[in-house]
Every structure is written in structure tokens, then in C-alpha cells.
Amino acid sequence: MRYFSKTILLSFNVALLASCGITSKDRKSTKPNILYIISDDHALQAIGAYGHPITKLAPTPNIDRLANEGALFTENYCANSICGPSRATILTGKHSHANGLMRNDNTKFNGHQPTVANILHANGYQTAIIGKWHLNTRPVGFDHYQILNDQGEYNNPDFVTKDTVQQFMGYVTNLITDFTKKWLDERDDSKPFFLMMQHKAPHRNWIPDEKYYHLFENTEFPVPDNYFDNYEGREAAQIQEMNIYQHAYEGHDLKMVDGVGSDQLLYDRWPQVFFGRMTDEERQTFLDAYRERNDDFYQTERTDKEKAIWKLQRYLQDYLACVRSIDDSVGEIYDYLEEKGLLENTIVVYTSDQGFYLGEHGWFDKRWMYEESFRMPLIIRDPFAPKQGQKVEAMTQNIDFAPTFLDMAGVTAPEEMQGRSLLPLIDGTPTAEPWRKSLYYHYYEYPGFHSVKAHNGVKMEHYKLIHFYKDNVWEMYDLKADPTEMNNVYGLVEYNDIQFELHAELEKLIHQYQVPQKYLQ
Ligand code: SGN
Ligand code: CA
């Protein structure tokens, strides 16, 4: 029961465009629906279309279908790898300092600044948001909202609407899917829609749907080569607290109990969002499902290293089971659109608020400018695009999302938005100015959860420069020679020239995006 009550070669694409007979006029004559699906903490490594070996064991066929029929962005990045700030950037098209939401604390998002929602709304779109919001204020610019309370709960969650706060029995991913379809059924179909479907999963503490408790119990996922990273040469990484075998809570995160046959969870930091949300029966079903594996933890002798790998497996099994429900949800929504004849005039976007670690460097969580958390999945299935199954390799960023959605709707983005429309990359049409060759990143939340020091930085070509500015510590990576960012090459003579260029580029971006000096010290 679900509930009760590299830059796409522009010239090549221009030629392709001409051969398909698609012109921008076709696009301009329609106001497409935009269905934007975002999950929380969904790593690229866990999406089949991006090709990581994990997905051979845990495939995502429904998300991959969107990529096969649309565009897969392979170099998409976030501006600040954490939930609220990423979502604020997506809505406003601006970096964190410019939209005011720099951290996941109690800062209140100002929804009255120009956002994609209120601009589309003013331009005849019906707007709705269903699922995780996490911006500390009520949504503005939406005809309808049905959002989770703060982080939300996996089991039997509360949903907040304009007038109500109500608990619904069921699993959060399924509920969000059902509510999305319900809203689509009841919408005013004389208007195009902009619908943000915002999943909670696969966010910590990775509770799968009951039907998937056993899904990966016998699956051993690949252990990243740098799982036992010692953080040599990287000062900030030496003090972080996001190590799976040191910092994940054994009860809350890893669902471990205190002995053979026990029903007593080990350390559960937030019982109110875990066992406290389940009925007695649900809790028992949960414990029984994990019992054999939990007993085995005590009955089999393991070295510390083996225990650390056991924990990684438990983490991945649960995380990827949560992802399975997300993929099911995408499939269910796709079928719905097809059935209702909406696939041909609805642009479907799939993304996550940032990337995530699946054991790389020993970690879970995000925040760093290192690739796994800096990168963001982005797939756009656009029925107006001249080509299906394309890869867009230009450097894109979540500041581009709002200008893109506005462009799709034929609306000019306000000057203050800092991103650019991605439509020319999808359509293969020339852009007025050359595409960007570098990206600016800025993470602010320190002190904070997981102890990741504030840093900013630039990525250009296959190089990255990172500044932990409070301590004035620099890191630099050559991603071709060192794709997993284990060797900080800052200060090495052989990198002098590129280091100089990266410093200059970082200064240029700080100036271009008008980052105030007070945020750089
Ligand atoms: C919670 C999690 C953190 C996580 C933040 C932010 N701890 O505080 O691990 O980094 O959310 O996540 S938990 O013990 O409460 O699960 S975000 O996706 O909202 O940015
Ligand atoms: Ca997140």
C-alpha cells in the first residue's frame, strides 16, 4: 500500500541541425512543459549512463533511457556542493554569495528575488514543487507546493502544503511519485507546466523501501582503490569527519545492532527520523531483514580492514537500494507521460543537488571541490532537440539551469542571472560568445557537519586549483595524471606555468562573479 488519505563540436552540430531540418522556430512556436526531477545526493557513479562499474551491479535503466533519448552532460558541476545552496543556485541562476544562501544552516532563502519559478509563473506557466525543499522558507512562485519538512523522513513522512502539515503512510520516494502524478492529473491543462519533483533519496541515512531490503544483500560492490586514503599532502582532508569506517554512525547509518539476535540499534543519532517514524510492525520487519547479516558481523572474525570493507558494503547496499526506488520512480513518471501523450511536449530533466562519495577517499557525503562531489549528474530529454543520445562535454554548472529553463519557455533571463542557457549546446546552435573554459566553486559551511574547511577554486582544462582560504592552504591537481586527486602538485616546479594561469583565472572569476572580499578570508 502506498499511502492512505568537451564542448560539443559546435560546427558539427550546426551541420547536423541543418540536416535534420530543425530550426529554432520550431522551438519558439511551442511552450513546452518542463518536468524537472532532482534527487538528493545521487552520485554520478550510481547512474548507469555515466558508465561506472558499480552500475553493472546496480543498474538504472529508467534514468539511462532519458540519456539515450536525450543529452547526457558529462562535465556538469555544482557551484557549492551542498543541498540548500545548490537548490538556491538552481532556482536563481546565481552563485551562493549572490543569491544569499551560502550554507545549510538557518539562513532563509529569499524566494522574492528573480527565480525560475516566479518568472515562469509570470509568463503563463503553472508551477508546482513536490518533495524536498530544504530552504527554510515557504516556496514562492509556485501555484502548488507539497514539500517535506526540512530534510524530510523516509518512512511515513510529513508533507507541508500552503494550509496543512500531514503525515502520509508509506515510503517517501513512492509518495512523492504518487503526489506528482496526482498533481499532473489535476492540473489546469490549458497552461504549460513547470514541475519540480524533488526526491529525498538517496540521502543519508539510506533507508531502502521495504521491498528492497534484500535487494543487494549478497552483492559485493567494487572497493575504490583509494578507500584507505591517508590524505598525505592534503591538510584539510586530514581533519574531515566523513569517513565510512570512522565517522558513519553504526546504528543510524549502518543499521548495526549491539549483538547477535539483538533488536537494539547501535548509535542512532536521530531516532526521530528512523525507527521513530516506523510502526512497530515495520520496525520488526526491518530488523528481521537485516538480522542474518548483522549476526554474521559478530559471528565471523574480521580484521579492522575487513570490518571497514564490511561497512562500505553495508553503506553501498543500502544507498543503491534507495537509488533503485528513484529509478523506478523515473520509470513510472515516464510511463505516465507516455500514456497521457505528454512525452512529445515535455522536457524531462534528471539531476541531483550535488555529487557524492561512494567510498572514494574512504568517504560518504559531499562538500569538497574534488570531482566526486563537485560533479553533478545532468540529463535532459528534450523532444525538441535535433539529436537523441548525445553527450554534451562542455563545462556546465547549476548556475545554468534557471537560464536554460527560461530559454526553453522562450523567456529572456534577467541580467543578474550568472549562468547561461544550455540550449545552444543541446541544439548545436552557435552561441553569441564562446563557451566558458573554467568553473568557479565556493564552499562555505565551516564549522559544520563533517568538518570540511571553507574553500573556493577554479577548474580549467584538466587542472584544478583549490584555496582553503582561512588557513591560506593551496591544493592543485592534474586530473589527467591523477584522476582521483591523491597528489597535491601545488608548488611543484614542473607545474609553475599552469599554476600561474590558474591563479589568474581564479582572480578573473572572483571579479566576474563579484565575490565580495569578506567571503574570501
Ligand atoms: C544531515 C546529515 C549530513 C549531511 C547534511 C546535509 N547528517 O545533517 O551527513 O551532510 O544533512 O545534507 S544526518 O546524520 O542528519 O543524516 S544535505 O543534502 O541536506 O546538504
Ligand atoms: Ca544533497
UniProtKB/TrEMBL annotation:
GO terms for molecular function: hydrolase activity. It comes from Sunxiuqinia elliptica. Belongs to the sulfatase family. This is Putative sulfatase. Keywords: Hydrolase. It comes from the Bacteria. Gene3D superfamilies: Alkaline Phosphatase, subunit A. Residues 359-511 form the N-sulphoglucosamine sulphohydrolase C-terminal domain.
